[in-house]
Write a structure and sequence with these properties.
With 73 residues, the chain is mainly alpha-helical. It has helices spanning 12-16, 23-31, 40-51, and strands at 3-5, 64-66. A two-stranded parallel sheet has the order 1-2.
Length: 73
């Protein structure tokens, strides 16, 4: 795996640079089936799993994984 495609992550920097009641935030949360922003652990866990021996049955040629909060687009 070469990349984890994660989009925007809820972080202190994100909070400092965005309006918590903004239209964008509302639209994005409504479009995500689990109705919450990604956290760092949501993105780190798939990468750690993929690098572990537990993922040995998954073909190595897969270049990226999307972490979309259950969105299928």
């Amino acid at each position: 795996m070469n990349a984890v495609a994660h989009g925007v992550i809820e972080s202190k920097m994100y909070q400092l640079n965005s309006d918590t009641n903004s239209w964008y935030r509302t639209v994005m949360l409504d479009a995500t089936p689990i109705h919450r922003q990604r956290a760092l652990g949501d993105v780190a866990a798939p990468g750690a799993f993929r690098a572990s021996d537990d993922a040995s049955y998954i073909p190595r040629r897969r270049r990226s994984w999307s972490v979309k909060g259950a969105r299928s687009q």
